[in-house]
Design brief:
The chain has about 325 residues and is an alpha/beta fold. Helices cover about 45% and strands about 15% of the residues. An eight-stranded parallel barrel has the order 1-2-4-5-6-7-8-9, surrounded by seven helices. Helix 1 packs antiparallel against helix 2, helix 7 crosses helix 9 and helix 9 packs parallel to helix 10. The two termini are about 35 Å apart. The chain binds 2-acetamido-2-deoxy-beta-D-glucopyranose (3 copies).
């Protein structure tokens, strides 16, 4: 769905900025026209609304979908088969799976680039083969490690098969490796066509989503965003101690935020926008609804907040726990 207001704002801002910078009406017109052509020629249309709705509201259009973050990392060891089963048992409608790769290029579930935080091993994933990963205890660092001892790091294939069996919707979270990830996911969709109706590919990196749609335009996708993420950490603390670097990054944050809301969503043809929960309001949800995009909030971890997202905002939310209030896991 195209908003005329959007288009006018986009090109007016670009026109004004370029004119200010170049003082040349000719260059300004040429650049603005090029941007228009680029967006028109290279953007991907959104998938049909009916399919996006199936993915985002598997229970029904009026029902908020509850997504277990990293498969519900508070209730069980994150990104494991047992966590997928616990999430399903505790009423999640969807799980978020973090896609990574072993050194021998097998797609697996892992949030970090090293195994240190979650397992009893140590070192970067890029140096560990699947057979090495198979020896690790994925529950080793979890608060319930005794209950879940010996849980393995699953391959993407194993995790997806479990989700299909339990009829859970999947939010694939892809951090990097645009080409590898798009190829692996394309293969997966080919093998399990039901995923077109039951999963969504999400990333902080527009490049990943664009690449995904290039390799298979039928896949439902979302961009993930946290305003001020370049200059600040998840808890709000500045990322850089140098004040100049901080200011520069803050400026880039403004540009990135603007690009997400005005250009990137359209270029990628996303169906949902996953945003840090503090930025969601009724007006904000409406902004996206007008563009045919649904807001999904992360990470919503208390009962009071969950009720608010479910009953007042009616916005899907991602949570670390299906059973109790807990601290956020960034
Ligand atoms: C779906 O929404 C309806 C109406 O709000 C509600 O009565 C029903 O319990 C919901 N179903 C589930 C499974 O949450
Ligand atoms: C990690 O735990 C598993 C299962 O208990 C064990 O077999 C393995 O040797 C341990 N690996 C390391 C590096 O400690
Ligand atoms: C996806 O959903 C549509 C509409 O419900 C259905 O016709 C189609 O067969 C489904 N595709 C798969 C692969 O399950």
């Amino acid at each position: 769905m195209l908003q005329l207001g959007d288009e006018v704002t986009l090109y007016s801002v670009v026109f004004a900025l370029v004119l200010l910078g170049t003082r040349s009406p000719v260059w300004t017109t040429a650049l603005t026209a090029s941007l228009y052509l680029f967006l028109t020629m290279f953007r991907f249309p959104q998938v049909p609304t009916s399919r996006a709705l199936q993915v985002l509201h598997p229970v029904g259009p009026g029902n908020v979908s509850v997504v277990a973050h990293r498969c519900g990392g508070h209730d069980a060891p994150e990104n494991t088969i047992v966590a997928i089963r616990e999430s399903s048992k505790n009423g999640a409608t969807a799980v978020e799976l973090d896609l990574e790769f072993s050194a021998d290029s097998v797609p697996i579930l892992m949030h970090d680039e090293t195994v240190d935080r979650t397992t009893n091993g140590s070192g970067p994933l890029s140096q560990m083969r699947l057979s090495d990963l198979g020896k690790l205890d994925a529950a080793a660092k979890h608060r319930l490690r005794d209950k879940f001892a010996g849980e393995k790091i699953p391959t993407l294939e194993q995790a997806v098969e479990e989700c299909i069996k339990l009829q859970l919707t999947i939010y694939f979270d892809v951090k990097g490796h645009p080409d590898e990830a798009a190829a692996a996911l394309k293969e997966l969709y080919k093998k399990h066509p039901v995923l077109y109706n039951t999963s969504i590919v999400c990333s902080f990196e527009p490049k990943v989503i664009y690449r995904m749609r290039q390799s298979d335009p039928e896949v439902v996708t979302a961009l993930t965003h946290r305003p001020w993420s370049l200059s600040r950490l998840g808890d709000g603390a500045p990322r850089f101690s140098s004040p100049w670097k901080h200011r520069w990054m803050t400026l880039l944050d403004v540009a990135l935020d603007w690009a997400h809301h005005h250009v990137l969503w359209k270029l990628c043809g996303i169906s949902a926008f996953l945003i840090q929960k503090n930025f969601v309001s009724p007006d904000y949800a409406l902004y996206w609804a007008r563009r045919g995009v649904e807001v999904v909030a992360w990470t919503v971890n208390t009962k009071v907040e969950k009720d608010y997202y479910q009953d007042v905002l009616q916005v899907n939310y991602i949570t670390d726990s299906l059973v109790e209030d807990c601290e956020p896991h960034y």
